[in-house]
Specification:
With 451 residues, the chain is mainly beta. It has a single domain, classed as Beta Barrel (Porin), CATH 2.40.160.60. It is built from 6 helices and 23 strands. The chain has a 14-stranded antiparallel β-barrel with strand order 1-3-4-6-7-10-11-14-15-18-19-20-21-23. A two-stranded antiparallel ribbon has the order 8-9.
């Protein structure tokens, strides 16, 4: 019990220093990461809690492991206008700010007899977000370069898990996922045309920066099965249920005090907010093949129900806020994503009893249709190359991994004249056509120990 309690405290202390995993990369566990995330049919180290909880049924000794990764993305957005006889005219040429996003996983497992294994883990399963330089997106904010454009959705999951060895070749496992999520958003609040009795009859008031920050809890589960008919071949399946997060927090509009003086003295620049967001259902199938004692090949196929991300709606407790935002459509953001498939492939080769080399490749289709991309929730077609190395010394295993992801730019020049500035609220609920690009580098390291 002392070992269990100490390991759990270490996991919690470690996890509080992390942020979140990124986009479509598969970097939870350095071994799985280096094998391209093709790990559902193998799941033989401490990261099995995430990839396939059935895999821990093969653990015969107490063990724990820690994983840490750094995601360094660099995004670009370009918006051109095609003019006949002239060619493309550059309207927007933007780049994201340089940021580091840290991911983590920590888990402890304890065999309970010959067939049962129990454990607990803390990890950051996913993260979506963008952070653009305001000066680059000034045309979307009435030429105001001081506006921040940022989205960040983080999740930390605490998972007690149990696995059972039904027979030598059939394993099952399940975990309860207790999810805590943070949702932050910053963008342009638009303008308000205040009526005047004399010409020009309308006085545009720049409302400046809009921001909201919320957090909430949700619950789900992960179920896994593995079949090992022999030492050459194995296969597995993982089902991760949807989890609805109920967010609560507050929203701010910098220019509301000025508008409140002219419009209503009861209008404040802060309002308590609520939002519900469902994290999607996911199903993954995987196989592992060992043609000889030193080589292991893996392949996974994962389906994710991203179509559940359709409309994000924010509810404001202040009745004046709710009325103002609802009338202009500013309480909703259209996402309109589609279900996606992701394919992953990996290989592991033992150079010796102590040293292992790994490599992999994966690609994922963008959940965001090309004509329905939003600068704060763009979505990409990712191609990921991974490499890694592992070193085993007595009861200690150290693994290193590196992922490189890139996407191709999709040219989408506008036909006809764009509307600048956009109508009040339109940038909040419509999509941003243009060419999107992204490159990411994600180094990571894992340390595990078996008692």
């Amino acid at each position: 019990m002392k070992k269990i309690f100490s390991c759990f405290l270490l996991m919690m202390a470690y996890q509080h220093t992390t942020l979140a995993d990124g986009f479509y990369l598969n970097n939870l566990g350095s071994k799985a990461s280096a094998m391209g995330g093709a790990f559902v049919g193998l799941a033989d180290d401490f990261s099995a809690l995430y990839w396939n909880p059935a895999g821990i049924a093969r653990f015969e000794r107490q063990s724990f492991g820690f994983y840490g990764g750094d995601l360094v993305p660099r995004g670009a957005y370009r918006r051109d206008l095609y003019a006949p006889g002239i060619g493309n005219i550059v309207l927007i040429d933007a780049e994201t700010r340089s940021k580091h996003y840290f991911s983590g996983l920590a888990a402890y497992y304890h065999p309970l007899g010959d067939r049962w294994v129990a454990g607990i883990g803390v990890y950051t399963p996913c993260h979506f977000g963008m952070s653009w330089r305001g000066v680059d997106l000034a045309p979307l904010a009435d030429d105001n370069p001081s506006i921040n454009w940022m989205s960040k959705i983080e999740m930390t999951t605490i998972s007690p898990v149990v696995a059972y060895k039904m027979s030598r070749s059939i394993l099952i496992g399940a975990s309860i996922n207790i999810n805590h999520s943070q949702f932050d958003l910053e963008r342009y609040a638009g303008t308000f045309n205040f009526p005047l009795p004399d010409p020009p009859y309308l006085l545009p008031i720049d409302l400046g920066q809009y921001s909201e920050s919320m957090s909430g809890w949700g619950y789900g589960a992960t179920f896994g099965i593995m079949i090992w008919p022999n030492d050459i071949f194995s296969m597995g399946a993982t089902l991760r249920t949807a989890s609805t997060i109920k967010y609560r927090g507050e929203a701010r509009i910098a220019g509301f005090p000025e508008l409140g003086t002219a419009f209503s003295r009861d209008l404040k620049n802060v309002s308590l907010t609520e939002k519900k967001m469902a994290w999607p259902l996911g199903l993954a199938l995987g196989v592992a093949f060992r043609p000889n004692q030193n080589l292991t090949l893996t392949a996974d196929l994962q389906w994710t129900r991203w179509s559940i991300w359709d409309i994000m709606k924010t509810k404001y407790q202040d009745p004046l806020w709710q009325s103002y935002m609802s009338e202009r459509g500013n309480d909703t953001t259209a996402i309109s994503w589609d279900d996606t498939l992701q394919a992953r492939f990996g290989a592991e080769y033992h150079l010796s009893e102590a040293i292992v080399m790994r490599g992999g490749f994966s690609f994922a289709f963008s959940p965001a249709p090309e004509k329905k991309r939003h600068i704060l929730f763009p979505g990409y077609d990712f191609h990921v190359i991974t490499i890694g190395v592992g070193y085993h010394f007595k009861e200690v295993q150290i693994d290193f991994g590196l992922e490189y992801a890139s996407v191709g730019k999709s040219e989408n020049a506008l036909q006809g004249l764009p509307v600048y500035p956009p109508a009040p609220g339109s940038i909040w609920e419509s999509w941003n056509p243009g060419a999107y690009g992204m490159k990411m580098v994600a180094p990571n390291v894992s340390l595990s120990y078996r008692f």
